[in-house]
Amino acid sequence: MQNTPKASSAPYPTDESRLFFRAVQSRLKQLYREGFSYAKAQVKLLDLYKMDDSP
């Protein structure tokens, strides 16, 4: 099995952290497989803007 990055994005720009954490939990449920050993993961947040500067 190859380690390939998995990306997810919000359906629209938001500063709502609950939306972010729901998306993370959903993605983890999709990726989790019983019987595998897991270690820490890296999360990168890309395309971040201040509310006043959003595109």
Topology at a glance:
Elements: H1 17-31
Structure write-up:
- By secondary structure, the protein is mostly helical.
- It is 27% helix and 0% strand.
- The protein has one helix and no strands.
- The chain has one helix spanning 17-31.
- The longest helix has 15 residues, at 17-31.
- The radius of gyration is 14 Å and the shape is elongated.
- The N and C termini lie far apart (38 Å).
Rounded to the nearest angstrom, the radius of gyration is 14 Å
DSSP strand (E) fraction?
under 5%
Distance between the termini: 38 Å
What is the count of β-strands? 0
Low-pLDDT regions: none
Order of helices and strands: H
Biggest beta sheet summary: none
Average pLDDT, all residues: 77
Helical/strand content category: mainly alpha
Percentage of helical residues? 25-40%
Shape: elongated
Number of helices: 1
Question: Which properties best describe this structure?
Answer:
single chain, 55 residues, 0% strand
Summarize the structure in short:
The protein has one helix and no strands. The chain is mainly alpha-helical.
